[in-house]
Write a structure and sequence with these properties.
Blueprint (H helix, E strand, L loop, with lengths): L2 H6 L3 E11 L10 E6 L2 E7 L5 E6 L2 E3 L9 E5 L6 E7 L6 E16 L6 H23 L1
Antiparallel strand pairs: 1-2, 1-8, 2-3, 3-6, 4-5, 4-7, 7-8
Length: about 140
């Protein structure tokens, strides 16, 4: 989603599909993940499938977990539809290891929290309505 589209997002809470690639393939993050938009800034809640992540670096910016119990949770500055370089330190092994990943948040799965439909579904429904209206108009013209 280009910067113009991000600026069109209303302030509020959303969910979005998140993918994580890289590492050994065992690490996972919760998807969909929660997003908060405020003044054009996007923050994503990244929850790992492990409580042993104590550091996360996204595009060169450092983050620490925002929780003390449960699986590690980070709130990061994020962008949609762009591969984000992530380095994360895990202390699950005998000594800490920093592992490289790629994170992507897919705007096609964006859904306003509170029951709204994903943006892609709304666009598809609008297209169906337009087609049906055009067909009805053609029938009346005959």
């Amino acid at each position: 989603m280009g910067s113009e589209a991000v600026n069109e997002l209303k302030d509020g809470a959303y969910t979005v599909g998140a993918t994580l690639t890289g590492g050994s393939g065992r690490a996972k993050i919760e998807s969909p993940t929660k997003l908060t938009v405020e003044g054009g800034e996007i923050r994503a809640e990244i929850r790992w499938n492990s409580p042993y992540y104590d550091y996360m670096e996204v595009e060169g910016r450092e983050y620490r977990p925002v929780n003390e119990d449960g699986n590690s949770l980070f709130v990061i500055d994020a962008e949609l539809d762009r591969d984000l370089a992530v380095r994360a330190e895990t202390v699950a092994m005998s000594e800490p290891h920093i592992i490289d990943y790629t994170l992507r948040l897919d705007s096609k799965t964006l859904c306003r929290r509170g029951g709204a439909l994903p943006l892609a579904v709304v666009v598809a429904l609008m297209a169906v309505v337009v087609i049906l209206l055009m067909r009805k108009r053609k029938k009346h013209e005959k």
